[in-house]
């Protein structure tokens, strides 16, 4: 079945103009004729539910992410904006700081401002989508999923953790620790489960305190790395489950006087800047921008009337 975007492309107008034509709003006779002719050629039938929704919503979508200063989420946001702009939508960016309370306030604002839909990286596995869901607005979860029946796009995070840990083993390291993000966030838990899977399979599992949790920022990785280096039997390598924690861990290694050429570091994500020359640091590249464009495509399809059951798309990470 043809979509509003295909009609717009054939008619040479924006999706917003197609919407105005079928909602009975004023457009020029030439544009109205072009839209109706294109719709007839494509056998396009406006979705009545979608039309009712569009009359009560704007052409603005909300993007809720935890940390705009993290280059991963910056690239993700760029992917969302590029796709939204292409289809005539604007994006309002909201920084949640992984705070469920702050996230809830932004969701309530998106609902009260009648935004057309929401893309969010949930602050926890208990994200409250009640306000936005009650209005029938589409939601797409990105990077992390929610218990709600909504579309989602994420990375195969366990595979990313496995790749990072395996690379350290292949480099000759055996006492490999892991610095993971806060407990309860799906992406980081999947990544440290990948680390644990490799350690168990290689019969190299270390003490329990080889797993350290921290916030997702550089100061979290720095503090966790200092704790690991202070252990009676410190590790000889570490996996960090995001890029900024990797920056902090590397700073702590250098400050402690440890030879970074001999200490293994694998980062899930790409370091925003390099202290060491590749391949001294293993990096598992995450498809951040692709996550953003995919999430935006899914959301725009829902706004356009797509009524198929919720689906989840999983993208692959790869060694840099």
What does this structure look like?
By secondary structure, this protein is of the alpha/beta class. The chain has 3 domains: 4-46, 434 Repressor (Amino-terminal Domain); 57-155 and 288-319, Rossmann fold; 157-285, Rossmann fold (3-Layer(aba) Sandwich), CATH 3.40.50.2300. Helix content is 44%, strand content 17%. The protein is built from 12 helices and 12 strands. It has a 6-stranded parallel beta sheet with strand order 2-1-3-4-5-11, sandwiched between helices. Strands 7-6-8-9-10-12 form a 6-stranded mixed beta sheet, sandwiched between helices. Helix 7 links the parallel strand 3 and strand 4. Helix 1 (4-11) packs across helix 3 (29-41), helix 5 (71-86) runs parallel beside helix 12 (288-303) and helix 10 (218-229) crosses helix 11 (243-255). The longest helix is centred in the N-terminal third of the chain and has 16 residues, at 71-86. The chain is elongated and about 80 Å long. The chain starts with a helix and ends with a strand. Residues 51-55 have low confidence and may be disordered. It comes from Paractinoplanes globisporus. One of its GO terms (molecular function) is DNA binding. Residues 2-55 form the HTH lacI-type domain. This is LacI family DNA-binding transcriptional regulator. InterPro entries: HTH_LacI, Lambda_DNA-bd_dom_sf, Peripla_BP/Lac1_sug-bd_dom, Peripla_BP_I.
């Amino acid at each position: 079945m043809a979509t509003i975007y295909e009609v717009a492309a054939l008619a040479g107008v924006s999706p917003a103009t197609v919407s105005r034509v079928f909602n009975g709003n004023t457009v020029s006779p030439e544009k109205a004729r072009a839209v109706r002719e294109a719709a007839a050629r494509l056998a396009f039938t406006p979705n009545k539910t979608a039309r009712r929704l569009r009359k009560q919503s704007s052409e603005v979508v909300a993007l809720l992410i935890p940390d705009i200063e993290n280059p991963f989420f910056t690239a993700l946001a760029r992917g969302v904006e590029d796709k939204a702009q292409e289809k005539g939508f604007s994006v309002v960016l909201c920084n949640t700081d992984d705070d469920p309370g702050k996230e809830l306030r932004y969701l309530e604002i998106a609902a009260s401002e009648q935004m057309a839909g929401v893309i969010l990286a949930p602050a926890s596995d208990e994200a409250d989508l009640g306000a936005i869901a009650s209005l029938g607005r589409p939601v797409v979860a990105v990077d992390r999923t929610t218990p709600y029946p909504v579309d989602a796009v994420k990375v195969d995070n366990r595979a990313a953790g496995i790749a990072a840990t395996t690379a350290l083993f292949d480099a000759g390291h055996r006492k490999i620790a892991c610095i993971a993000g806060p407990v309860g966030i799906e992406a980081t838990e999947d990544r440290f489960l990948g680390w644990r899977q490799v350690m168990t399979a290689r019969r190299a599992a270390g003490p329990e305190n080889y797993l350290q949790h921290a916030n997702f920022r550089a100061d979290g990785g720095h503090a966790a790395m200092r704790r690991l280096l202070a252990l009676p039997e410190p590790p000889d390598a570490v996996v960090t489950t995001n890029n900024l924690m990797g920056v902090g861990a590397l700073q702590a290694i250098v400050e402690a006087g440890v030879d970074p050429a001999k200490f293994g570091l694998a980062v899930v994500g790409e370091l925003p800047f390099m202290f060491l020359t590749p391949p001294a640091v293993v990096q598992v590249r995450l498809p951040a921008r692709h996550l953003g464009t995919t999430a935006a495509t899914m959301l725009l399809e829902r706004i356009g009337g797509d009524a198929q059951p919720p689906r989840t798309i999983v993208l692959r990470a790869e060694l840099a």
